[in-house]
Prior knowledge:
Blueprint: E1 2-5, H1 10-22, E2 29-32, H2 43-48, E3 56-59, E4 62-66, H3 68-78, H4 88-115, H5 124-144, H6 146-149, H7 155-171, H8 181-190, H9 194-198
Parallel strand pairs: 1-2
Antiparallel strand pairs: 1-3, 3-4
Helix pairs in contact: 1-3, 1-7, 4-5, 4-7, 5-8
Amino acid sequence: MKLYYSPTSPYVRKVMVLLHETGQLKDVALEQIDGTTPVSPDATLKTMNPLAKVPALERPDGPTLFDSRVICAYLDARAGNKLYPTGSRRWETLTLEAAADGILDAALLMTYEGRLRPEDKRWPEWVDGQWSKIAAVCDALDTQWMSHLSGPLDMGQVAVGCALGYVDFRHDARGWRKGNEALADWFAEFDSRASMQATAPPAV
């Protein structure tokens, strides 16, 4: 298998953490894609994923998979269903993963607004609106989800860890930890995992 990736993509990081945690790193070759953006997509990547987004997982026995949630579910099934539990906890895990991806979607739009949109066309109120989504999810995690986050490792925790890591990476000045002390303490411990340390984005 071959994973098309960017080392700064938080969606790729989810996949990489899963590969570390499930012992599948040796089964996947990495193909780095540099510089693809919504306004300038990489041509090679587009042949693998018509949306021209990373991650994309090329397989020898079927079509290329794309979207981090699809890839993570596929790789976890391949490893024996280690990070997507059964029973009622499964639905909590999937909801947490969706909430974390919502953080990422909003944070990435904020990043694109500052990096790709011409300065005279930027819309601060729209950026603040994206941040309000992140803040609301962090509040919900801190007040409603700590028992799950503190439980056995699953993909919901991985997704939340990668999402908060990306907010630190690109929007640290916004200070998501303020008022979310339980979540901040959880993240400090989770971020020390070997899989998280090995997949931390490079400073750029």
